[in-house]
Fold:
Amino acid sequence: MKIFNRILQILTQDHLQNGLALYQQERYNDASAQFIKALKQFPDPASPSNRLANFYTTECYLALAETAEANGNTAEAITCYQKVLEYNEYPDVYYKLGLIYLHKNDLPTAESLFHKALKHSKHFRRAMVQLVITQIHLRRVEALETLEALSADEHIADKEPVLDAIRLHKLAKFDEAVAAIGSLLHDKPKEWVLMLKRGDDHFMNQEYPQALKYYQSALKLKPQYPDYHNRKGKALFELKRYQEAIQAFSRATVLNQDYVEAWINMGMCHLALGEMQEARSLFNRVLDLDPENEEALAQLKELLGEKA
Structure:
C-alpha cells in the first residue's frame, strides 16, 4: 500500500495515476485502458513512464487471462494472453497458451508455442517436456532429438523417465513413451525431504533411534546441509551419545559458522559431559553472534552461579 501511495504521489500524469488507482481496485479492464493511453502519451520505451505503463498493462492482461482461464473461458484467456505477448514475450505465457491449445487438441499450434517458450528460456524444462509430448502425438521425427536433449540436461536429476521414454519411442510404443516422460511434470517430494520428515515425526514422538536412522539417510543424500547435521545431533543428544552429537553439531557449524542453534546445542552437550569451560566458551560464541540470545544468557548465568 505504501509503495502504491508513493508511486501515486510522484506521478503527475493523469493516465498513469488513474491506471494505478484502478489497478489497486482490481478493475483490470479499466486500468489497462488507462495504461495503454499512457503508452501512447509516452512512446519512448526508455522513459520511466513508458516502462511503468508497459509493466502494468502486462499485469492487467495477465490477471484477466488467469481469471478467464479459472472460469473456463478459454477464448477470453487466449485473447488476454496474446495481449500480454504484444507487450512482453514472457516464456511462461507462451507455455500457458501452449497448454490451452494442447487441451483443445490443436497440436501444431501448441508445438509452435512451446518452441517459442524455449526460444526465450532454453532451460524451461516443463516447456521442453510438453514439447516432446506434443511431438510424439504428432509423430514428429524431432521427438527423439528433443528426448535426447532432455537426457543431456544437467538440471534434471532423475534421468530414468527420459531414458525410458527414449527406449519406448524407439520401440514405437508412443503412448507409453508419453506416460514415461510425463512423469517429469509431477512434482514429487525429493527423497531426502521425505527422509527428513520421517525423522522429524519420530523425533516428535520421542522415538530417537528411528529419528536418527532417517536423519542419517537424509545426510547420505545431502551431506552439505547444516540443518540435517543439527537434527542428527539432537537425536544423538537425546540418546545421551554426547560425543557423537558434538561431532554432528560441529559439522553443522563448519558448514554454517553463524548457526546459533548448533552452537547452543554443542554447548549443552559439553554441559551434559560436565565440561563447563568448553560450554561457557560456546555460549559466549553464541552471544558474539546474537547478543540477546536468551538461552545462552540463561546458561551463562547458571554457570556463573555454580562457579560462585
